[in-house]
Amino acid sequence: MFEFDVQHRDGRARVAQFHTPRGVVATPMFMPVGTQGTVKGISPQELLEIGSQMILGNTYHLMLRPGEALVEAHGGLPGFTAYPGPFLTDSGGFQVMSLGHMRKITEEGVTFKSHLDGSLVQLTPERSIEVQQALGADVIMAFDECPPYPAEREYIQRSLERTERWLGRSLMAKTNDHQALFAIVQGGVHEDLRRQSLELTLPYNTPGFAIGGLAVGEPKDQMYPAVAFTAERLPEHKPRYLMGVGHPEDLVAGIALGVDMFDCVYPTRTGRFGYALTDDGRLNMNSSLPRRQLIPMDADCDCYACQQYTRAYLAHLVKAEEMLAPRMLSLHNLRYLHRLVERARAAIERGEYHVWALTWADRYFKGQVPVWFQQAIDAGQRAI
Hints:
By secondary structure, the chain is α/β, with parallel strands linked by helices.
């Protein structure tokens, strides 16, 4: 039911088919984030048209509003949202960090103050799995803690050990065989702690593994050695998911290191702020120059916004604060990331990923390719 079939390899980068109950998805892939049961401003039909394959939902937010019972009454997230493809739900573990000023952690779980009304909400491994099973996602995540950056080594170690105990409880609570539960490897940017987390986590032999605890504020030159170290020690025959990562350069570097799945609010959030993603970097549609340009946002893009509208028109919408502007920029940014991974898959299939990635980076970084990026791409070429 959850087969992962690697079809092409180029160094550590690989192309695979990930079989889920609601369909087969091609990896590497980027997952749009539908925190509250919707990818902000984008309809399910549009998501399908731009090549989205799997959507992420947020356990903590959906548990509070509208409540998992209502989602379950619709047959789970596909029925609730009208998106017919596969879903992945996070466990609420990220909110353990992001709502740090509103929560208390114990061995039992986490007690939050609801961001909606201030009421106390308890989330335990058992409760997280109960909610995720009701939400009906194809892939669900073990309950974990994502430590902030910076954090004391001792705290990160205690946290990863507790995360492993929560993984055991998450698996004990799971009763639905039609959902794949992924374990999460923690350890921050510390190689020895990543090794410890791997040694604790791999014996559980879950259908896939996530790399957690990164992209939380640490510098890229610390993040990518941790990604490389972790990814090369995860099973070859199972999907690897780098959580919360979605900048274009992060996808290209992560794919080189053998990562298969990514998610992030970045493309839609940056679209709402008036920025468009391109191979030449971010285009600021808030500035005056695009208002005089009678060309598409991105001449290489096949999305509706780029095919139908000029920069001048979309920049006018941004300036006028028309709601179509953030919709179209978000649509384009999602399509850009989907096209990016499509191009990455094609380069891997040709056996040219290293050259393609560096060519892309030379344009994207305007000839100033960062050392961390070059090192990540080179590490991906070395034999496993």
